[in-house]
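User: Sequence in, structure out. Go.
Assistant: Echoing your sequence, followed by the structure tokens.
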Amino acid sequence: MSDSDPYLWLEDVTGDDALTWVREHNQPTIDRLTTGTRFSDLQSAALEVFDTDDRIAYVRRRGDHLYNYWRDAANPRGLWRRTTLEQYRTDSPEWDVLIDLDAVAADEDENWVWKSALVLRPAHERALILLSRGGADASIVREFDMVSRTWIDAADGGFALPENKSDIDWIDQDTVYVGTDFGTHSDGESALTNSGYPRVVKRWTRGTPLDSAVTVFDGSVEDVAVQGMYDDTPGFERHFVVRSTDFFNHEFYLLGDGDAATLIDVPTDAHTSVHRQWLLVFTRSPWELSAGHTHPTGTLLAFDHDAYLTGNRDATVLFTPDDHTSLQNFSFTSDHLVLVILRDVQTEVRLLSVSDWSVSELVGLPELATISVLDTDPDHSAELFLSASSFTTPPSLLHGTSTGGVAPIKQSPTLFDTSNVSASQYFSTSDDGTRIPYFVVKRDDVDSGPTLLYGYGGFENSMTPSYGAVSGRSWVERGGIYVIANIRGGGEYGPTWHTQAQLAGRHLVYEDFASVAKDLIARGLTTSEQLAAQGGSNGGLLMGVMLTSYPELFGALVCQVPLLDMKRYHLLLAGASWVAEYGDPDDPEQWEFISKYSPYQLLRRDADYPKLLMTTSTRDDRVHPGHARKFVARMEELGHSVSYYENIEGGHGGAADNKQAAFKSALAYEFLWESIGPR
């Protein structure tokens, strides 16, 4: 298309003309897809999954209590509550409700959506509560007294911030680190970065106005964000600032006397953390630590923190990857470092003793399950909370210690019939010869038929096997084949699986996904007419590329909260923060490779496109809804029909509560069954 964009007016998120266009496009989709009994069944089945009281109430320990945020049919906005471990082990725990958000929203006539709670340690008597309107990333901050169960208003000395993409962290009961929109900075530029996040960290004292807070660190408007943090580990109290120069590069500073910032000299693309006396560095590119000694990408190293700052580079290698194995994440208990490892996308857990880094296995883990560490209490105990699930086994919550092993204490109900459902792993071959793993989940009596292929392929996000109750009920149980593709751009084989698909290597993501689609057809599991694909956000971009560059492979696509106009993505909302992933379209050399896949610019009148359902959210302040709107408008201009639905609420997740989530899910599955269902 030409350089002029006739649909820029659709980027006016809440403009009258734009919202009129949205409503006019929503209604035909609603009329067509939501009136039948199948839609009602799909919606009811999804809502039952989201609302069931039998699902696990996942918790996090804070002192003597286990905290949980709970939404169900009776509490659609949710309850922030807590209980004891003794009570939690029972079938019907007694919960102490701290905040009833439905009651708060009703009292204040606001569409509040819960974001998070920051509890002040060690007394656990105060919390900073983050709430958003309609599910947006931007939040307000309020202080809550957990003893009196009351809000502490700003007039009474409480910490409070208006709606913004703010960052805040406790230092002590009377002091916080805060980053927010302070207005025009002393250098004449904004106190926010071009990505819309804080670039300035200040120390704010209770009872003083925000504009009197003391600046402790300045970043640049070109940064993604700057964040101040306080490590309250007993005996190792420290102050830090993290400056994110782009999405994947960070400068890590230790704050000393007088707020003097000392740069911790590690590779900026590494994942760096400090715990007690250790500095841990997880490499995302080769690191030549000493002459002739280079640690490969994906290596985890431990140093003595204080010695490192004086120039000592003696390292203990805690993990080294190989062609099949990568480190996904790590966490501490009081006695162990817990490593979660993927071997060909299958989970392993390894324990390293903090006394000598000796290796042992965690006792009590189920076989062939995806394991996630949910919570530890590293300052006080060896306690562990873990989740275990698979494609066909509902999640179980494991509890125990890294010293004595774990055992299930909670089990999710079986929400779809898996008695004749199995999961298999296959590999396709991408254009450059790389083997791409993918999982197929289907009923054993189904040899071929309607197939839904899901992918993401970005930001080092790994797609691991997990129990999908909604996809199981809405797709697999009804005879559909469900497929998860582990394409590059993710982190399934470590950081290199991602970094090779950044910038000019972005085409690998799309070639990988297309190779899985071709392999499914070649194996006889489906045909192009009965193959659909689904993805959201970065995965929505993936769907846009499949539509414009590989339309012959698919019968239908579901594209959710997508990036699509890659010529302008960096100018819209948080888009500037993703330049390190995709490239800078204002740079002619980088636009050269971006333009080869940017879906909005590649739409053609003479193409034969698969059926398309496009969904987004007005309240998404991360990926601009203008991407979806403009793409649909352009398709219609070129003579192509599209099903479109935009939720007026919902944020980047597309739904503000369980009912909206169930509606959105049913809309997608009804579209898929209508488009590629049995002929």
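User: And one key feature?
Assistant: Residues 282 and 300 are 4 Å apart (CA to CA).
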